[in-house]
UniProtKB/TrEMBL annotation:
Keyword Oxidoreductase (UniProt): yes
SUPFAM superfamilies assigned: Formate/glycerate dehydrogenase catalytic domain-like (SSF52283), NAD(P)-binding Rossmann-fold domains (SSF51735)
Native organism: Drosophila grimshawi
Taxonomic path: Eukaryota, Metazoa, Ecdysozoa, Arthropoda, Hexapoda
Family, as annotated: Belongs to the D-isomer specific 2-hydroxyacid dehydrogenase family.
Pfam families: 2-Hacid_dh, 2-Hacid_dh_C
Gene Ontology CC terms: cytosol
Protein name in UniProt: Glyoxylate reductase/hydroxypyruvate reductase
Domain D-isomer specific 2-hydroxyacid dehydrogenase NAD-binding positions: 115-293
Residue intervals passing through the bilayer: none
Amino acid sequence: MSVSRAFKVLVTHPQVPLPALELLRSRGAETIVCQSVPPSRDEILQKVAGVDAIYWAHYQPLNASILDAAGPKLRAVSTMSSGIDYADVAEFKRRQIPLGHTPGVVKNAVADLAIGLMIAAGRHFHAGRTSIETSQWVTERIDWLMGKEIRDSVIGFFGFGGISQAIAKRLQGWDVAKILYTTRTRKENDVDFKAEHVPFERLLGESDFLVVAAPLTDQTREKFNAQAFEQMKSSAVFVNVARGGLVKQSDLHEALITGQIFAAGLDVTTPEPLPANDPILKLPNCVVLPHMGTQTMKTTIEMSLLAANNIINAIDGKPMIRSAY
Ligand SMILES: O=C(O)[C@H](O)CO
């Protein structure tokens, strides 16, 4: 059933894919599209007054100041991201304003990238490239750039939602030794991936590749710190595709320098963007990417449509497809 009357949606970024805008418009939306790149808070605050819905397409704080500026007609907000650590979810709950986000559809693109990082870090892509650029291509050494294989390795996941499960599914054909994961409660479908639910200490102590794919919350913030790295194998490869805030980056830097762990692959850092002179970029055993896990056109369009459908459902008085609370 279509939405019966016109409603106004503020879209906070001019590059939201057209299919999502067309979907909103086909359901009666008047779309007010912000034009600034990067998005300007002033423009948002100026245009948001009186809208029925907000399509939040970037990572600026989504908090009471935006909700106040929107006013009493606001009935739906959806982000175009899976992670919503920049949103004040408690404030949405308090005001009973539906907040949607776009998990699920991001899993395949992020899983591909995570496996890329496992290989890139485990096999010294960064050091290899640097050695060419600095004329240090050491062909005479047999032990040069010796890396870690996924075959016969214990793969550990911190978090076992859609992204981890998409990685585990892909790895079924890679002859891994074991798949372990740590979450608050056991996932009933873990048998589908031959994965074992283990306490955090076992995950740290046994993983050859440890992949972080869990939301950033007060409970997970800086979970990977000096104490955690000390419990990991010196041969371990650490990969983070979640949020930089789950890792105490100075402790990771130390663990990589001292050989506490073997290597790291990071799609997310603190801060973002990472300054060009950040010490983590200088480490030969660390591959760093600029938070590009979902950056494929296919996934971006799926995320944009899910955000639009979240809004349409809420305006129709139905539950959002993926609600943040
Ligand atoms: O949360 C997400 O959707 C991805 O990390 C992109 O930010």
